[in-house]
Amino acid sequence: MAVSKSSLGKQQHNNDQEYQKKQEPLIPGLPDEIAELCLLHLPYPSQSLVRSVCCSWNRAITNPGFLLRKRSLLLSLPYLFISAFHNSTARIQWQALDPRSGRWFMLPPMPCPGAVCPTGFACISVPNQGQIYVLGGMRSDTRASINTTIVYTASTNQWSTASPMVTPRSFFAAGNVDGKIIAVGGSGAEYNDSITSVECYDPRKDAWEHVAKMRVGLARYDSAMVGGKMYVTEGWTWPLLSSPRGGVYDLGSDTWQEMKDGMKEGWSGVSVVVGDRLFVISEYGDCPMKVYVPDRDTWHGRENLRGVKWAKRGNRERIGGTKRGVHSKVGGRGYPHGFPRPFSFELPSAVCLKTPL
């Protein structure tokens, strides 16, 4: 096939332009090694702006080696991600808090399958992958549960969809156990249809599969991952006529066990895991914060806690761990400091994620 000289010349010109782009310095006047260090120290919220500066910057920060160097230099910081919703329209808008500047910024819109209830889904972080998984939920128009799996990747600041769950569910518990995601119980196809099925998602295979069922369905769900196991409880529900139920799931043996009496009796609020210690922010009583002591199957109040820093803000108390690896939940509905209005948030909408950028 004959090729004209003009076509060959145009192709050569394009190749020359591409070569010149690759040879462009990251920052004029600086060696690329020094310029890369400057890019490594840019905060995560600036990544979308960095990509639009020039082709060389876009190539640099999307290179897998760049992410590895950032991790090796321990430059990644935990960010607090909150799924907020508009007060009047119920439109969902994920937002993130930069811990260094104290500023909030908005994520791209999450791809929702139509109108959904803002509090019906479960959200789980996979910190070592820099990802957030948003599972299931309930359509607000038909009140039917859905089985979607939506993934946010911090390194690209983008949403994507993964394989859907086997069973549609809403208002359920979910957790990250050894890199795999466990979805437990909840409401089934109908809002009042309580289910006991449990399924496990393997991110490497992008596949869900059923695992051992719960022994009973729960009225509501709170959960925590401690020591490679998932603890699930319904907590105390008004009017407090019967003791709460709970179970412990072991992924290694694919079995459920009864939760110890002391643990489920004292689990009276939302949970926070700091290291391997389970804290509960109590919803009633005179003990606002307590920690579970496994050896004694009991809970210790604030006066018995060591290695924990306390801060007071208004009529609320916060906890700051002295160890790394804090998994956070934010309780209540309202406006955290600097949080953009007119959005609100409710549990279970907050996760802590160590971003790779």
TrEMBL record:
Signal peptide: none
Record-linked SMART domains: FBOX, Kelch
UniProt-annotated stretches for the region Disordered: 1-22
Regions of compositional bias (Basic and acidic residues) in chain numbering: 13-22
Biased composition (Polar residues): 1-12
InterPro entries: F-box-like_dom_sf, F-box_dom, Kelch-typ_b-propeller, Kelch_1
Superkingdom in the source lineage: Eukaryota
Ranges for domain F-box: 30-70
Record keywords: Kelch repeat, Repeat
Record-linked Pfam families: F-box (PF00646), Kelch_1 (PF01344)
Protein name, per record: F-box domain-containing protein
Organism: Hibiscus sabdariffa
